[in-house]
Amino acid sequence: MLSGIDYFVVIAYLLGITALGLYFARFVRSADDFFLCGKSLPFWAVGMSIVVTDISASDFVGVAGQSYRFGVAAGNFDWLGSIPAMLLGAFIFIPYFWKAGVYTIPEYLGRRYNDYVRAVASLTWVIFFALDLGVLFWTAAVMFKPIMGWEPWFSIVVTAVVVGLYTFFGGLTAVVMTDVVQMIIMFVGGATVVIVGLYNAGGWDGLTDKIAALGDAYQHHFELVQPMDRQTPYPWTGILFGLTLVMSNAYMIGNQAIVQRCLATKSIWHAKASMLTGAFFKMFVPMLVMFPGLIALATLPGMEDGDHAFPTLVKTLLPPGLRGLLFAGFLAGLMSTIDSFLNSTATLWTKDIYARFLKTGASDRHYMIVGQLATVVLLIGGVATSWLSKYFDGIYVAIQTLLSFFQGPAFSILLLGMFWPRATQWGGLAGLVGGICTSILLYILKSRLFTIDDPFLYISWWSFLAGVLLNVTTSLFTKRHPPERLKGLVCRLPEDLKGGREVTTC
Fold first, then answer.
1. Fewer C-beta neighbours within 10 Å, C or N terminus of the chain?
2. Are 42 and 139 found together in one domain?
3. Which residues contact 351 (CB under 8 A, 6 or more apart)?
4. Residues 283, 432: one domain?
5. Does residue 348 lie within any of the structural domains?
6. What is the C-alpha to C-alpha distance for residues 477 and 321, in angstroms, rounded to an integer?
7. pLDDT score recorded for residue 169
8. What is the mean pLDDT of each run of 10 residues along the chain (506 residues)?
9. Based on the domain organization, do 37 and 68 belong to the same domain?
């Protein structure tokens, strides 16, 4: 349980971050301000916001839980699963989206293919973000129970009210600027746990010796590359094909919550630099979220649920004051991801569905109000679906399983759409819908098709291939877009004529 000084630190953080978020509400006067900050953000703020958008409380709890169960292989999701894709996005995809002047990734797909593709892509992200909000709220319940003694429903409601308040009024500006503060707090809090934990475990040598003494079941715990014949969600084939080639690129390049921040920067240079800044900070993240699981295994072996490793470590190792600081860091990670998902989902709903299909030509203020109302509805939906997380083998597996249903197909049509002019509108639709159906079928039949219990990496890979195959096949039998229709939408096609010569992009 937290002491008096811990409560002081946590309450001071909550009041301060809420006040900071509400302060930026004064700059929100239009839908453009609410969704893209009027394209005024600097690269350093966006880069820090990207990090805490991707790394949330679910990573502190979930990745620590996975490293407790399976070892350092869980760190691949931040090293191989983020940094290469962020570099690719910085130099190719992000500048292209920024110049296109789009609000969302589905908006780009709608221009490249058709409105049906835009609607399906937007709805899949809206559904994922809504369900993922439930996972994040459940993460709060898992963390608050052993430390503060709160019942799950109370933890979930408190989290929803605090984050929803400044996100509703402040829009993306409040989200990004509070994320800057929250990243600093998160890094300090996470580093505190690692330093104190390693000291109690006897340093790195003591840590490895204690885990090795647990028996042969833990002989692979310090292998980043896991063998295929081991019952783990991270075999090397899944890491290479499912994560490195598909899920990482789909998440860091095609994820609205990540890309929207880059689209709100001052210039293309700032857009590129924001991704590079985020990639730099991401290199340190596995040390903060993965090592606590190993420390807990060495000092507190025998837990039935690895997801309790991180909160139990905090409760048993940290003295008063530091415990409150860490708890504030945990809240920072949780709140930064929730506010990002809320704003991004409101953007998807308002721009890609409501303004396109339900009410076109409304006033700018009308769309801002719709975005704010969508924020409230999403909060309610996230609270209502939070209990579903307990049916998965760990919080992190729940998130990755949800992503595997659509990320492969979504990335396949994004990749072909940007680099293959022959892809047609019906090819894109077939690739997206057919790929999603393939992933759902693979999940239903997973016990017959795969040898591991949680094959989300394999599902992502095979659904990506299905999306590519369906897109290519359908495109070859349907009418192609005229070249002028694709200008500014496909890499290496001429955008304009200047001085009698063709100007190309990418």
1. N
2. yes
3. 35, 103, 104, 107, 367
4. no
5. yes
6. 66
7. 59
8. 75 75 63 61 86 74 80 75 85 83 84 91 83 77 70 77 65 68 80 87 88 80 69 69 80 82 84 91 85 87 78 79 74 70 79 82 80 81 73 64 84 91 94 94 88 81 94 94 83 50 49
9. yes
Q: Which residues contact 280 (CB under 8 A, 6 or more apart)?
A: 47
pTM higher than the cut 0.90: no
Q: List C-alpha distances in Å: 269 to 25, 42, 95, 452.
A: 27, 10, 8, 44
Are 374 and 422 contained in the same domain? no
Angle at the Cα of 155 from the Cα atoms of 149 and 158, rounded to 5 degrees: 130
Q: What's the half-sphere exposure (Cβ side, CA atoms, 13 Å) at 373?
A: 9
The amino acid that residue 372 corresponds to is Q
In a domain, 506, yes or no: no
Residues 110 and 256 in one domain: yes
- Is 480 within 8 Å of 422 (Cβ atoms)? yes
Boundary residue ending a domain (341, 365, 390):
390
In degrees, to the nearest 5, what angle opens at C-alpha 397 toward C-alphas 416 and 392?
Answer: 125
Q: Which of 155, 133, 165, 233 is nearest to 15 (CA)?
A: 165
Sign of CA pseudo-dihedral 229, 410, 72, 296: negative
User: What are the backbone angles phi and psi of residue 362, rounded to the nearest 5°?
Assistant: -80, 170
- Rounded Cα distance between 310 and 189, Å, is 12
Which residues, 6 or more positions from 190, have their beta carbon under 8 angstroms from its beta carbon?
A: 60, 287, 288, 289, 292, 326, 329
> What pLDDT, on a 0 to 100 scale, did the predictor assign at position 227?
64
